[in-house]
């Protein structure tokens, strides 16, 4: 089991890579991955005897076939059950409660269907014990696919968890039946631990002030769903999300503390390993069933097994073994973001962070031995400065190694969070130990628990204060936008180059150490051995940061799917962004859940101009939400003829308090920048209509990306048929295409209402495309039946966000998020 440093010496890793590529071929439909086994051939045959190489080839081929078969069977079963369930209006299902979690909406229960690995999810005010066999009746509802690129993909998330659907209005009743005695005992223990977990949560909330109780609970017992969203966002922005969820960090700390404690008590290594393994197993199983938690649990058990049998296993080999196990038993988990993050973090930690810290330690030893006399028993001992420097190096290179992975999934990476980790992570063992002890003690005496939890209170306060202050610093979080596969591969290749440099330099320094060359004759540059190495490391590190720090901006119109509301986002090739409206009456927190992720996905860090057509909630609440979050907005544009009401007064006051300019527009005004132009069409000084909708701001937006054809969009707000006719009489010429190469798009007025989009308006504008923004099942019946009949009669092309999700226009090409 002894690990080696080169991939060709790791048959388990080679086998894991082969199997993982096969699973990905089935799940993410990437045929190019068929080339992976062939790319592994050089590693198989390099420095290996022919017979051994052929045997390994057979193992790799078998693992590839096993991965294909496992993923195909699991995916086919999942899709079949999902289709059967979601095609019915009501159903009765039989299964077993295998997971449950208390949320703000009730107890969320996971029911594993009989004879299947597939699960369903239901929420009830009351809960049944884990392991109970139940009958579930209700209305199955499928999970929503991603409707705006960059936003949360609910369907993919739950598919990775093998959850086929959610049951609305669920009625869950015991169906009878018993489990095998060993299974029954397992579920009895799990239920007792579940009850204990939420009793400890109650102790935390009673003993600690405000949000510190839920925060400590999230850190120690994994109740992340009850954590305040503001605190969660603050930690994620600071690059500390890994401490909020029970994962490898918590399991390794907990397991190591227990193992060392047992050893200190004089218990033999094998017995200590077995006891700590049992404790960690139930701790992990009761706290979290996430793939990262499972990965950490199995790796810990392998480490304890190696202690029992007296052998060694390294990180990469155990990681490879876990990936093989997951590919065979739960291949759908490979699609989870948590799988990629967890496995990438451990692999890159082993390949870069540990070698970097080892390289620095080798330098420290070499420096010490060449500046001290050789005395028997006198050895190098790290100073406090050496320890701090080593920690900074370790933390920096794990952040640098994961930068491309974070950017791929979250469209940003925390550049300076390695500094914050240095002052946060050393306190985590104290939080875990005191938190769990205090939580258990609080079940018997709350006053004593408050005393024991007081240090946790101080640490929680320090965590929150440090994260909040850190988020206010510049360059703490670099927004990258959606990075290409090429960028990701280049950055990971640079990281592996760093790994080679560290390992090679460590070898050279130890070789120099044993030759006993005097320090004065061979000056060593701090940190990595010599000036040339330090320069290489610095240049390669900056290469990763620079590659990721410059997003690929594009000229684009994006009609966001905001449910029942409006939201148009315009981005230019020079990185500027403009918003038109941005609100919804059907989607909660539209700014946080749709607008902000869409801006981040495009690598945008601030809005240059925000056009508000009128002050209805379904057009403006996203703007007010973002301003309250201190998101940078330069100027808000409103109509000079906008109706004054309380909502307008609040917006003006809000903008003034955040230093945002407000500018009025009317017919004839225009503004723009290099690639973008906005012309106000309506209302003008002669229009005399009354009403908020009737005075909606109508603009013509033009994107002219150099040599490519320009794109024009008519944004109409909520105007009606009378205003459309008025515009045709007074500004018809402005709305015509100036050349055949132009693309003219009309944003349907008032969400496709029957009282807008009149026949004459549509025929005389004659757009290349009409985009309708409306929410599914809205109470207004948008888009109206008569409007759709007029559009179809004229033979015009139209998309509705209900059917297509977000509609994007790039270089005249129209892209739907959801294919019909």
Structure commentary:
With 820 residues, this protein is an alpha/beta fold. The chain has four domains: 77 residues; 89 residues, Nucleic acid-binding proteins (OB fold (Dihydrolipoamide Acetyltransferase, E2P)); 158 residues, no CATH class; 261 residues, Metallo-beta-lactamase, Chain A (4-Layer Sandwich). 50% of the residues lie in helices and 16% in strands. The strands form four sheets. It has an eight-stranded mixed sheet with strand order 13-12-11-10-9-8-21-22. It has a seven-stranded mixed sheet with strand order 14-15-16-17-18-19-20. A five-stranded mixed barrel has the order 1-2-3-5-4. Strand 12, helix 22 and strand 13 form a beta-alpha-beta unit. Helix 7 crosses helix 16. The radius of gyration is 30 Å and the shape is globular. It starts with 10 loop residues before the first helix and ends with a strand.
């Amino acid at each position: 089991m002894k690990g080696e440093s080169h991939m060709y010496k790791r048959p388990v890793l080679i086998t894991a890579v082969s199997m993982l590529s096969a699973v990905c071929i089935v799940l993410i439909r990437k045929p190019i991955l068929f080339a992976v086994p062939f790319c592994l051939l050089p590693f198989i045959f390099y420095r290996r005897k022919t017979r051994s190489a052929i045997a390994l080839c057979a193992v790799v081929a078998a693992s590839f076939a096993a991965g294909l078969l496992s993923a195909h069977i699991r995916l086919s079963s999942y899709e079949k059950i999902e289709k059967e369930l979601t095609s019915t209006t009501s159903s009765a299902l039989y299964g077993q409660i295998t997971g449950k979690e208390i949320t703000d909406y009730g107890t969320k229960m996971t029911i594993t269907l009989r004879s299947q690995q597939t699960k369903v999810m239901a929420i009830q005010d009351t809960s049944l014990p884990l392991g109970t066999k139940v009958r579930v009746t209700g209305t199955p509802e499928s999970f929503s696919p991603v409707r705006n690129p960059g936003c949360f993909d609910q369907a993919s998330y739950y598919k990775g968890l093998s959850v086929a659907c959610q049951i609305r209005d669920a009625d869950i009743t015991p169906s009878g039946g018993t489990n095998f005695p060993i299974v029954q005992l397992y579920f009895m223990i799990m239920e007792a631990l579940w009850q204990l977990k939420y009793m400890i949560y109650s102790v935390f909330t009673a003993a600690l002030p405000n949000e510190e109780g839920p925060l400590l609970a999230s850190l120690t017992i994994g109740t992340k769903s009850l954590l305040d969203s503001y605190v969660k966002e603050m930690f994620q922005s600071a690059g500390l999300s890994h401490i909020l969820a029970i994962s490898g960090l918590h399991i390794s700390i907990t397991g190591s503390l227990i193992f060392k404690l047992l050893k200190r008590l004089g218990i033999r290594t094998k017995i200590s390993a077995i006891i700590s393994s049992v404790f960690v197993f139930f701790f992990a199983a009761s706290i979290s069933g996430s793939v990262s938690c499972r990965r950490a649990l199995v790796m810990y058990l392998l480490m304890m097994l190696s202690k029992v049998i007296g052998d060694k296993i390294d990180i990469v080999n155990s990681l490879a073994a876990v990936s093989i196990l997951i590919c065979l038993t739960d291949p759908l988990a490979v699609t989870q973001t948590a799988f990629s993050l967890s496995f990438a973090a451990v692999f890159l930690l082993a390949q870069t962070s540990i070698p970097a810290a080892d390289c620095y330690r080798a330098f420290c030893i070499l420096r010490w031995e060449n500046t001290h006399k050789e005395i028997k028993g006198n050895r190098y001992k790290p100073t406090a400065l050496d320890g701090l420097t080593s920690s900074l190096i370790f933390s920096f290179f794990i952040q640098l190694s994961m930068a491309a992975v974070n950017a791929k999934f979250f469209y940003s990476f925390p550049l300076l969070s390695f500094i914050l980790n240095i002052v946060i992570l050393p306190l985590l063992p104290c939080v875990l130990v005191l938190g769990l002890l205090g939580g258990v003690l609080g079940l018997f005496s709350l006053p004593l628990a408050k005393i024991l939890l007081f240090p946790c209170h101080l640490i929680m306060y320090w965590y929150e204060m440090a994260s909040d202050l850190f988020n206010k610093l510049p360059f703490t979080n670099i927004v990258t936008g959606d990075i290409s596969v090429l960028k990701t591969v280049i950055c990971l290749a640079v990281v592996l180059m760093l790994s080679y440099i560290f390992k090679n330099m460590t070898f050279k320094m130890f070789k120099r150490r044993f030759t006993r060359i005097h320090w004065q004759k061979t000056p060593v540059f701090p940190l990595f051995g010599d000036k040339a190495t330090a320069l290489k490391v610095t240049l390669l590190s900056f290469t990763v940061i620079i590659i990721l720090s410059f997003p690929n901006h594009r000229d684009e119109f994006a009609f966001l799917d905001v449910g029942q509301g409006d939201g148009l986002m315009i981005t230019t090739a020079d990185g500027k962004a403009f918003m038109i409206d941005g609100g919804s009456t059907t989607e909660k927190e539209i700014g946080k859940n749709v607008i902000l992720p869409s801006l981040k996905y495009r690598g945008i860090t601030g809005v240059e101009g925000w056009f508000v057509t009128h002050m209805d909630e379904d057009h403006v609440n996203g703007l007010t939400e973002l301003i309250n979050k201190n998101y940078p907005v330069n100027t808000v544009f409103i109509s000079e003829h906008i109706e004054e009401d309380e909502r307008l007064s609040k917006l003006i006051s809000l903008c003034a308090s955040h230093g945002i300019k407000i500018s009025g527009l009317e017919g004839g005004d225009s503004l723009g920048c290099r690639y973008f132009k906005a012309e106000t069409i309506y209302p003008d000084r002669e229009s005399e209509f009354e009403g908020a909708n009737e005075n909606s701001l109508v603009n013509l937006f033009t994107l002219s990306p150099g040599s490519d054809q320009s794109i024009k969009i008519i944004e109409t707000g909520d105007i009606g048929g009378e205003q459309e006719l008025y515009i045709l009489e007074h500004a018809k010429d402005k709305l015509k295409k100036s050349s055949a190469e132009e693309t003219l798009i009309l944003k349907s007025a008032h969400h496709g209402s029957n009282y807008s989009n009149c026949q004459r308006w549509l025929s005389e504008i004659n757009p290349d495309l009409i985009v309708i923004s409306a929410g599914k099942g809205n109470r207004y019946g948008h888009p109206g039946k008569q409007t759709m009949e007029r559009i179809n009669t004229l033979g015009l092309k139209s998309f509705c966000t209900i059917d297509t999700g977000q509609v994007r226009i790039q270089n005249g090409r129209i892209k739907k998020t959801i294919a019909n």
